[in-house]
Amino acid sequence: IMNTNQTKLKEFIILALSDLPIIKVFLFSILLLIYILTLAGNISIILLSKLDMNLHTPMYFFLSNLSFLDICYTTTTMPKMLQILLMEKKSISFASCIAQMYFFMTFVGTECVLLAVMSYDRFQAVCNPLRYAVIMKQKVCIGLAIFAWFAGFLNSFVHTAFTFHLNFCHSNQINYFYCDLPPLLSLSCDNTVINEILLLSIGVFIGYTPFFFIIASYVCIILAIIRIKSTQGRQKVCYTCASHLTVVVLYYGSTISSYVRPISTYSMGKDKLISVLYSVVTPMLNPLIYTLKNKDVSKAV
């Protein structure tokens, strides 16, 4: 279909991770195992948080939200990856590509803000232990979770609206695992300066701002830990915060490098590997990081 001498695409071709049959079978098996482990681990956390009264706390409320996000992450991208590896058909319709990018970017933005909300919860628990129950009431927790989801949906809506008004005429082959913003912008034959400005500016608010908020929270937490005289008390606080901090480093390290920089600096080969870290590996590791040697979860199990 021609429109002002430019080809309007009806579908995109997502390139497979490999064209060698043996490697494709191996990758399919590994990704399927990762997907199953991700679903099993995160569903288990949600169920335990709901069923065990001892886990009806703000920390596990936010952790349940994080687990739900991780399930959404993998379900948005992994089934299509598995289909491409298993079948010859590698195409994805234009509408499906829009939907995949919209929901994926929603979950990216939501998780950035949610991790900052979780750091605020840890800050209140460590620095204001006597007022913690009053400050982190159920209504406050629900309000913070809604804010995180709203920020994610708003972030995604803006990027999706501006991206799919572009013309894609250079190629319909996406050298990536799924429909994401950077590879799609690289395929456009229009000027993408506005899209890049939006990517960088919104990225500052939904990426760097929560990240610096987390750093500020942990500076206050470290100062509070230093004032704790009991060695056992220090160890307990450090262990509680260490899990969240590990997830923050893994997640922010990969997402910020993927989104908050100019499109001209992207290398699809290298960025594909980075995308695997936050879209495939991190959702699988999160349940392990949060529950490993966690006495509350062990009792709940």
Automatic annotation (TrEMBL):
Residues 41-290 form the G-protein coupled receptors family 1 profile domain. It is a multi-pass membrane protein. The keyword Transport does not apply. GO terms for cellular component: plasma membrane. It is found in: Cell membrane. Belongs to the G-protein coupled receptor 1 family. This is Olfactory receptor. It comes from Leptobrachium leishanense.
